[in-house]
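Reminder to self: tokens first, then the designed residues, so the page reads top to bottom the way the pipeline ran.
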């Protein structure tokens, strides 16, 4: 099961398909980010790595 690279929470496969980067990594999830900003946070964290 995919997990958030920021907080380690498990995320659904469906969530990962939408918000993961090209390698399948999820950098923000509902547990550690506001729902409205998940996509923006994910893109920002992916650029920082």
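Designed residues (49 positions):
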């Amino acid at each position: 099961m995919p997990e958030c690279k920021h907080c380690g929470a498990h995320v659904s496969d469906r969530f990962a398909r939408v918000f993961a980067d090209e390698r399948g990594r999820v950098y923000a999830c509902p547990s550690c980010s506001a729902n409205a900003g998940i996509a923006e946070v994910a893109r920002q964290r992916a650029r920082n790595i």
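DSSP finds two helices and no strands in the chain.
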